[in-house]
Specification:
4-stranded parallel β-sheet; 11 helices; single chain; 8-stranded mixed β-sheet; alpha/beta
């Protein structure tokens, strides 16, 4: 009896050790979600780098996995297709972004999944990533990726970008950093990254803060982590947002900027206006008086700096003007944050807190 008990104990210990060993060597599970983009496009020839896509020239997610079996050495990778219907024009809409955000939230809640990669067109990738950064509660890595050249292009950047994005998503150290962006071997955060060149491969940069790390050939290295609130700490979870977000538009400031554009937006019923201001974020020309009239009608005004470098500061003069400083956000990201803020409040002090927090 004692011998059988001893053998049973040894068996249980061996089984537990085997399970722990298997767990230790199990590859992470990564899901790729396709939102389309250049990385999901083909052209008529390998040398055609700027005329691609269109009907019948898309790349389905499974084609990526078939072309790039190396990703399976990094993680157990599956892919989902959430591209907009073929022929859709005009880019993203917020209902579409909300639908993707809800799916990302489901994947974030799935304990069997270790990381998520999202492909997107580079034109508005930074905006989509920022929206997810603010609305999806997640601690596991979520990595946005795109390409400047079509998947079919000679020396296309898509395959390596996608491979590196999977590497980041499978890296435990990338957890808790919010939504990330990987292209050209460089890791950036969703808050700060922006597209800086129409065609160059090194287009995505974080002008004010710099990159977070790199996907080098030997390993992923992370040097910096975001301090602003995001994802799991955000107050704007996708499950609690209304079906329609408040209307916010952007106006650019320049010599002799007319006030009638501000008036027209107010008449149209906007709830907020981003003024992409001169210098440190100032309205110009006829905008100055028109903004005051808009504020009297309850429209919230946020200032960003068209210089794309440096912050819009919270000065006594700006507080007197009741224009909310947009920190160092570009206007398109300030717009998204203001739209989300207006779902909760129109109080300027509270909106300022939100811009200081995220």
């Amino acid at each position: 009896m004692r011998k059988h008990t001893r053998l049973r104990s040894l068996f249980l210990i061996s089984a537990a050790f085997a399970a722990l060993t298997a767990s230790a060597f199990a590859k992470p599970k990564v899901v790729i979600v396709s939102m389309g983009g250049t990385i999901a496009s083909k052209a008529s020839s390998r040398m055609n780098l700027n005329n691609y896509g269109g009907k019948g020239n898309g790349v389905a997610p499974q084609e990526w996995l078939d072309f790039l079996p190396e990703v399976q050495e990094v993680a157990t990778v599956t892919a989902e297709d959430m591209r907009q219907p073929e022929g859709t024009v005009g880019g993203d809409t917020f209902p579409y972004l909300a639908r993707v955000a809800k799916r990302l939230q489901e994947l974030a809640n799935d304990q069997s999944i270790d990381g998520i990669v999202v492909t997107h067109g580079t034109n508005t990738l930074a905006e989509a990533a920022w929206f997810m950064h603010l609305t999806v509660s997640v601690k596991k890595p979520v990595v946005f990726v795109g390409s400047q050249r079509p998947w079919s292009g000679l020396s296309g950047d898509g395959p390596m970008n996608l491979y590196n994005a999977v590497r980041i998503a499978a890296t435990p150290e990338a957890a808790g950093m919010g939504v990330l962006h990987m292209m050209n071997d460089t890791l950036n955060g969703a808050r700060d990254v922006t597209k800086t060149s129409a065609y160059r491969l090194e287009t995505f940069k974080s002008p004010n803060t710099g990159p977070l790390g790199y996907a080098d050939s030997d390993k992923v290295v992370i040097y910096n982590k975001p301090l602003r609130k995001h994802t799991s700490e955000s107050e704007f979870n996708i499950s609690k947002l209304p079906a329609t977000l408040p209307s916010v538009e952007i106006l650019y400031a320049y010599t002799e900027s007319p006030g009638y554009l501000v008036d027209a937006l107010v008449d149209h019923g906007v709830k907020g206006i981003i003024i992409d201001g001169t210098g440190a974020g100032s309205p110009a020309g006829g905008q100055v008086d028109a903004v005051k009239k808009a504020q009297e009608k309850g429209v919230v005004i946020v200032a960003t700096a068209r210089t794309r470098s440096g912050r819009v500061q919270d000065t006594p003069r700006r507080r007197e003007s009741k224009i909310v400083p947009g920190d160092d956000l570009p206007p398109e990201k300030a717009r998204i944050l203001l739209m989300l803020a207006l779902t909760k409040t129109t109080d300027l002090t509270e909106i300022q807190r939100i811009f200081d927090t995220y």
